[in-house]
TrEMBL record, chains A, B:
Species annotation: Shinella kummerowiae
InterPro entries: cNMP-bd_dom (IPR000595), cNMP-bd_dom_sf (IPR018490), HTH_CRP (IPR012318), RmlC-like_jellyroll (IPR014710), Tscrpt_reg_HTH_Crp-type_CS (IPR018335), WH-like_DNA-bd_sf (IPR036388), WH_DNA-bd_sf (IPR036390)
Keyword annotations of the record: DNA-binding, Nitrogen fixation, Transcription, Transcription regulation
Keyword Disulfide bond part of the UniProt annotation: no
A single MF term (Gene Ontology): DNA-binding transcription factor activity
SMART domains hit by this protein: cNMP, HTH_CRP
Superkingdom, natural source: Bacteria
UniProt domain Cyclic nucleotide-binding: residue ranges: 32-81
Protein name, per record: Helix-turn-helix domain-containing protein
HTH crp-type domain ranges (all copies): 137-207
PROSITE patterns: CNMP_BINDING_3, HTH_CRP_1, HTH_CRP_2
Length: 214, 214
DNA sequence: CGGCAATTTGAAGGCGCTCAAAAGTAGTGG
DNA sequence: CCACTACTTTTGAGCGCCTTCAAATTGCCG
């Protein structure tokens, strides 16, 4: 039992689980999840690998006292669910209406592993870059890096629709929701971004964001 | 070019490079590095995978202004150097006298990849657990988790010899060296640990550390 | 329009950082 | 062996960024 497993032994879910699953077919066909629906939970047996067909996913861990760290968001086309153990060490939930293709991979070696290694390494690099953000950047830098990352992963669009709430962004960036909101407001005041909807973000001055992210 | 690559374009090494390499044979034989010696640098062409035979290694990234984030320490028996690109995105340096076995892997698929996937996933899980520490734990919790991790990875020994300086611990945990030192002192005052040497740590009350790490 | 949740904004306080200096450690050479 | 130097670690004081607590505002959906 590792340090972090120990941390989580006393965990209990804070809200009652409501699956909200519209349709879960057998085999490799996509499964549909409503916003907030659980895809898998810590301690569950690993079911394989997951590919986001549409929508978005948050993957996170919890501390015993309820503090949450979202280790990654996964958007359409991305793969997640890599684990070293037979049971999940993380929770995965849909951020919005989401379609997931589940590949049941009992054997993780041979040619299949050869195809998976690049995907796993992609996740590793993302996690390592996120370590730099969490370890050494201030609130403004974190939010700027986050917005640029989200934009890049949606094709570098000028206007993006965030699939997650402020609370999710905070738990991803290691900040309180109030601080996230304050940074958004400050960026809006400086005309670096515009906030047309609650979830929409228009990047007005990309260069300014990039300067801030450093 | 990603956000983080951009961040690092203006990077320059802060100290003059002194290889201090005693012996670097060809092929798969181990290479020896003195304390502080560079194993590879950001931007260099990837040479393959690296296995620590003895000693210890730090892998890190830098921001343009010199802030450093150590993404991982690697001890004897551990493998590192996984990259998605043809060039390194990180720096790797020996923390002390260290022997490294370099496997030159031109093809990262097939059975070889099958053997590598578990190692890569191990790195991924470590990075994700570290995200929880950096994102959601305070200074005391971070140091406690670090000490337990170091102890566990050295066989759960009661007394361990840290191969790294306070500055390295700080850059790993996202803290200043002063804060790391203060937490060490506080743990010593509470008789949770003892500090026989500058680098030595004796874990007197493991349970207390585990309670703190949560 | 009314009600609920999410977001925003404000005020006060705390944790960790920066700056600074003292104490301890190691390495070198006389 | 000891003196000298350079570096690391420790300790102190003050400050600033972010958090917490609280309340106002906005947005959304019936």
């Amino acid at each position: 039992m590792t340090v972090h497993d120990k941390i989580l032994t006393s965990f209990h879910r804070s809200t009652v689980f409501d699956p909200k699953i519209v349709h879960r077919p057998a085999g490799d066909a996509p499964t549909y999840f409503a916003a907030g629906a659980e895809i898998y939970a810590q301690g569950e047996k690993c079911g394989g690998l997951y590919t986001v067909e549409f929508g978005a996913v948050r993957v996170y861990r919890l501390l015993a006292d309820g503090r949450r760290q979202i280790s990654a968001f996964h958007l359409a086309g991305e793969m997640f669910g890599f684990e070293t153990d037979v049971t999940h060490h993380f929770f995965a939930e849909a951020l919005c209406a989401t379609g997931i293709r589940i590949q049941r991979t009992t054997l993780l070696h041979g040619d299949l592993a050869g195809a998976l290694l690049p995907m796993a390494l992609q996740s590793l690099v993302r996690a390592q870059e996120h370590l730099l953000v969490l370890g050494r950047q201030n609130a403004t830098e974190r939010v700027a890096a986050f917005l640029l990352d989200m934009s890049d992963r949606q094709g570098g669009l000028r206007t993006i629709e965030l699939p997650m709430a402020r609370a999710d962004i905070g738990d991803y960036l290691g900040l309180s929701i109030e601080t996230v909101s304050r940074v958004f407001s400050r960026l809006r005041q400086k005309d670096v971004i515009r906030l047309p909807n609650l979830r929409g973000v228009e990047i007005v001055k990309r260069q300014a964001l990039e300067d801030l992210a450093a």
